[in-house]
């Protein structure tokens, strides 16, 4: 597998394809998103990595400042813009109650999400899928992005948000504020 990583070294989805860059999610304001499990632009602990590579698929704890007034719902998107694909790989997608200001460690677990969390489809089913970058592909950035939506997302192209494709959900949402923190993970 290491040879595949080396062959794909220069192929990456790119930051410009993140949900963060979608016009409808840019919003005018910002608020703060942090994690007690990793600092912004530091390495994620192996327990947050995929079970496929020896991790636990344990979503990191997250905390955020109060979103601006008028927030009807929060949309959490976790993406890997360094995936050797056309678009970033979606590691988690969830709608959150706007009263929440934190998620506990493991709060995005598919079988037992935290209260106030509605898990949506991601790259592998629903719930958090930890990092599992191709060996020798180099460091991958994991963008934890939180969007304060002006209207609750109740349908996406005539479907419930839980049944819609991740990119369709991101395109249907309208944000008036956003927050972000990034972590890194690499397989040698």
UniProtKB/TrEMBL annotation:
Keyword Transferase: no
UniProt keyword annotation of Ligase present: no
Keywords in alphabetical order: Protein kinase inhibitor
A GO term for molecular function: protein kinase inhibitor activity
InterPro entries: PEBP (IPR008914), PEBP-like_sf (IPR036610), YbhB_YbcL/LppC-like (IPR005247)
Top-level taxon: Bacteria
Record-linked Pfam families: PBP
Family of the protein in this entry: Belongs to the UPF0098 family.
Protein name: YbhB/YbcL family Raf kinase inhibitor-like protein
